Amino acid sequence: MDYVYGPGRNHLFVPGPVNIPEQVLRAMNRNNEDYRSPAIPAMTKTLLEDVKKIFKTTSGTPFLFPTTGTGAWESALTNTLSPGDRTVSFLIGQFSLLWIDQQQRLNFNVDVVESEWGRGADLDILESKLASDTAHTIKAICIVHNETATGVTNNLSTVRKILDAYQHPALLLVDGVSSICALDFRMDEWGVDVALTGSQKALSLPTGLGIVCASPKALEASKTAKSVRVFFDWNDYLKFYKFGTYWPYTPSIQLLYGLRAALDLIFEEGLDDVILRHKRLGTATRLAVEAWGLKNCTEKEEWYSDTVTAVVVPPNIDSSEIVKRAWKRYNLSLGLGLNKVAGKVFRIGHLGHLNELQLLGCLAGVEMILKDVGYPVKLGSGVAAASAYLQNNIPLIPSRI
Amino acid sequence: MDYVYGPGRNHLFVPGPVNIPEQVLRAMNRNNEDYRSPAIPAMTKTLLEDVKKIFKTTSGTPFLFPTTGTGAWESALTNTLSPGDRTVSFLIGQFSLLWIDQQQRLNFNVDVVESEWGRGADLDILESKLASDTAHTIKAICIVHNETATGVTNNLSTVRKILDAYQHPALLLVDGVSSICALDFRMDEWGVDVALTGSQKALSLPTGLGIVCASPKALEASKTAKSVRVFFDWNDYLKFYKFGTYWPYTPSIQLLYGLRAALDLIFEEGLDDVILRHKRLGTATRLAVEAWGLKNCTEKEEWYSDTVTAVVVPPNIDSSEIVKRAWKRYNLSLGLGLNKVAGKVFRIGHLGHLNELQLLGCLAGVEMILKDVGYPVKLGSGVAAASAYLQNNIPLIPSRI
Amino acid sequence: MDYVYGPGRNHLFVPGPVNIPEQVLRAMNRNNEDYRSPAIPAMTKTLLEDVKKIFKTTSGTPFLFPTTGTGAWESALTNTLSPGDRTVSFLIGQFSLLWIDQQQRLNFNVDVVESEWGRGADLDILESKLASDTAHTIKAICIVHNETATGVTNNLSTVRKILDAYQHPALLLVDGVSSICALDFRMDEWGVDVALTGSQKALSLPTGLGIVCASPKALEASKTAKSVRVFFDWNDYLKFYKFGTYWPYTPSIQLLYGLRAALDLIFEEGLDDVILRHKRLGTATRLAVEAWGLKNCTEKEEWYSDTVTAVVVPPNIDSSEIVKRAWKRYNLSLGLGLNKVAGKVFRIGHLGHLNELQLLGCLAGVEMILKDVGYPVKLGSGVAAASAYLQNNIPLIPSRI
Amino acid sequence: MDYVYGPGRNHLFVPGPVNIPEQVLRAMNRNNEDYRSPAIPAMTKTLLEDVKKIFKTTSGTPFLFPTTGTGAWESALTNTLSPGDRTVSFLIGQFSLLWIDQQQRLNFNVDVVESEWGRGADLDILESKLASDTAHTIKAICIVHNETATGVTNNLSTVRKILDAYQHPALLLVDGVSSICALDFRMDEWGVDVALTGSQKALSLPTGLGIVCASPKALEASKTAKSVRVFFDWNDYLKFYKFGTYWPYTPSIQLLYGLRAALDLIFEEGLDDVILRHKRLGTATRLAVEAWGLKNCTEKEEWYSDTVTAVVVPPNIDSSEIVKRAWKRYNLSLGLGLNKVAGKVFRIGHLGHLNELQLLGCLAGVEMILKDVGYPVKLGSGVAAASAYLQNNIPLIPSRI
Fold it and tell me: Which GO terms describe its biological process (chains A, B, C, D) (predicted)?
């Protein structure tokens, strides 16, 4: 019937795509519609207004591209930069690596600042580069808010402070793919010029929307940016925004209704409470990892990620075996270690529409798998540590009080 | 948007209605159809054939009533008995109580054999009644295979042995609502005359089908049974079976497609493996209860139920508070204590389309709730006990090896 | 993939089950829930309140039985009457015939008033029977509002007038299966004591809810009615209404949410506008039949039905062939002629969630089929007649003005 | 509940997005999955193999981009051409215009061959250009197979013949957005180098997949094409094809399952029968237009399109009013006239999962609207003409014989 059957629910704990709420599945369960009827623009208007809230911006302009995070990256770069422009980009894991690769292929002059995988962006180097760049050759700072491969969250507020300290005009381009709607993110306050995310991450939708938000300064930059672009051109959207029809080409009707439902759910829970829930889930996961006697791939607490935890396995264990076993025996989907950390870490995604008992079920599964592969874990230890914390911190569900 | 919102999945651990597999939800997500077209009878034919397999009968005749378990009871009784007929019925909990109430209101002469709630049917009394009933005044033995209120499984094979020992012709009518498709049940081998279940139990469908299966002896009895019946009359179905159109009145198209999908899933996993999975889930739950230092409402191991566990709380705790808290704080649905055991037990349903990690998430939740209400549980202890057992017993998922 | 594949949508024009709106399909596309949580009673309360509106009653008490129309009949009868009670019942087609059969099998003393199929209930005979029944031996008048087999609508307001004229206390029991939510029906104004419908008719839901509404007088009668009943007993519901938990046994969660959505749609369109839409669809269909030179099975205009039209075919044509051909060649589902009119009529159901262009597509199909089977129809003639009427009468869609 | 409510089904007759079959909606009604588990690559493998069949190619390499038709265009161009390359492009309507605009913005040297809107590509000019291009400066011929704005189908087989006659090595790039899966298209036989379509057209899926198929010659060209590309780069896919993991970035799980279901439906009906069905629907539509006394925007029969018909309205009528009225009064979605033909034509899309009775309902609606806006149409005339043709040509549904 399906491609691979297993009894009971699949426990989806990769850091994306994530679990879709039933409410969103329902909203998307529909036939196509004429996107040129008055109904779709009317809904789109509410979406564009509301999507700004998840970026915490009032001055930004959002774009809903029918694409993935990779396409959203391309849109952010090509609309604001010209070939040959110098970018400072932080390489701290597989996804920042891929973004840098894209920047290079798009012919920017990429000044790569590399850190050990497991560490955050080296902001001291950023500072020294800005300090010496009195000629303002640096056109953009490209940084992932949360590196999904290692579970590292960068401090964007500090990035802004450094830029301000040197009154440097470089644009601040932020990959918020595994952060927005889950981690504290403040586009206006932190002076982010382009922020972007993908629908299949903390918004808990299917893949298919690359959501990009541009500051007024970024929009201004787009007027002179010479990078070749058509599909990802903001200007094509802006033209249709003015017409009030919004769409330069056919949108996915289903994803629009899905986004409407997803935003409604987030606002019903409260965006700040959603972020607090992610903090709880992240903390609980880290307590479990500690109780198992394993190391978090993230070196320091300041970089801990509340959306994904990369767990380092002992040298005698192949982390891919853990992921394979999770799927083959427990109907549990965990994230692989990628590139430099392949075989060395496995990842627990704890983002999106998820609650504490789902996570505890996952942690109980990981314990059994660790034992399966020969690691001397004490069964129940991680769950005990996590639930001791959770039991003190889970709030009542507001609508049920 | 919905009536009561909570983040993440609801953890549904009441002993019915239970979790519906995505495959079944998909199969039911459809418009109505003309049930008189050739398509519906063609599908119905496969359903009637395949539904016999879940009763383990080849000689039985199944009926798919658009009703609930209560209606299925009524169908079983009114088609086989006449007003005034003597039944021997075992009262061991709320659901056997309700069935007995129905028997009395249908004007049978009910010989009630009561046990303490938490104990199984008293088969010694059955034996003595049969022994003394040389005139064969007893027309039917009515017994629940699994009492959902207390988590007690009766031994049907012994009932059959006793009947055979006395060569007693009484019909054996079995409520298999919370057993069929989950516990070992053998209609032909155990000489069950009418067995029945509801779609929302181990079949993991929505409520709406009362599935009744009649032995040749029961069909024979229906020819002379004088109880008034129309909607629940087997004969109306048999007439349409002969026509090959199958339905005396409009069936639910969606439930038929859903049943098709549910049966396909069960056969893909293998009915015996489904039963083994329930045994694993039941055992794991009982180990957790023991680890928490709590008592199973079921007095003896011989009656332990692999589909529902009723957990006795200490006298100073109100079990309703546990159920309420589960729902208000953890998005977890547990079963209330009913009638005599109201406030004294809460119930964990572990039947239907469910896997081990789902159960462990539930058990972790129960631990936190126990602590919430002041019971001195060691967090993680139940999960540890359950997963120690599970880690040794969960098989690989066959389709993924 | 499915049982019988055909390209494009199935054109469902049987008089039930009917087309389900996408909004309702979406609302029902959900996992099971604990029906004992606070959420389900809260929703049920709104359902019971709102369902009264479709019966146009403020004093009635509604019951949502997990059953079909046949079960709803049984509930109406057994709760209000005692074995041996005299009913006056009108036999005017297959469904009134089946209801009468049920009344007889339930041991009432049925006084059958038969009409030619195609004619309405003979109210002159009713009058004479009431006139002579000064002893009030007649306990109930049983009448279908709309006979689905022949497309005949009875005049309930006249029935009430006759009863009042003789100040006769007989209960008025009405089968509104193919009328309620589609035809003008006024429970309170017409003094109907029990009215009932099924979810798969004009409510445009799947089969599975038998909706019964009882007047205060009917409720009073239920206190002394001696018919045996358990599953269909109103009293079991009333008990749980008082508790505020509403359900004596497990309801279908999906149908409750579906009913909520269905009622919302009806109220959004406006019940009276829904009824007007049915009048338009009925009129258009009859104009087409006339244009084809065919006869409506319904003899007189006063009985014309706005939910189903039975079309009489010429003697040399077998109407079953038309239905078969519709399905085999045009993916169109029409209603068969039943019993006395088998082979002589085919039926076009035009009820539920349906609009004018859907009907015109059906009529165009019927024209082609008539030609297929050798009837000398002028293609386009029926559509022309119907659309000439519709073009003058379809209103703008209010939400789109 | 929804953005704009209207009773009954929406009649969706824009030339995309089109009606989605229930089977496909069901297949897509699912949670996200880990796309790195073995299940997704296993399914993807079947998709890539089967998708070649709809292009009628065995040597082509397909790519499933998470994008729209506009993105698919960009992929076709940037992978095969370098900035400054000369393309010959035919401007015959709004969509070819947009593609030409894209080519210009991507810095190709576009040699535009314009026709009157309503006429096909001028192949005489193509011939003369090729004849004089002995230096082979023309690198690609860009042509839409079917211009969706005017309902014009170009003759690709002649294009190939001309190319062959001059043994010209230019690549042949074909926009098959509104043709593939609906019109006769033969990638290998016609020597098409890149063909592309979008999921929301004849494949009857939601928007979100840009399906591009490249010939061996196109793949070879991609090795030296210097256009900047990352997201749309074929090479990133080819790398993952070799790994057997297929996806360089997260695909839409739902669209993959949807595509699987859509292809299954097309193969079950038979691709050639699907194309024949479109020929029937196109012919029937044109017969209706003729019967109404209106002109087809397409000038000559050789260019008639079987997927969309643009109907020219008399000068005193604004075609936008027709589209508006269709939506406001009849719940019918028609296509607007675009750009040069705005106000002058309205479009009837007749592609995708659609059958004859659906079309006849639409035609009956158009007749009423024409009357609404003052055009002296004879109601029923178009339906009569269309159904006279259809009644002779619709085959029995194979699975129902």
Answer: glycine biosynthetic process, by transamination of glyoxylate
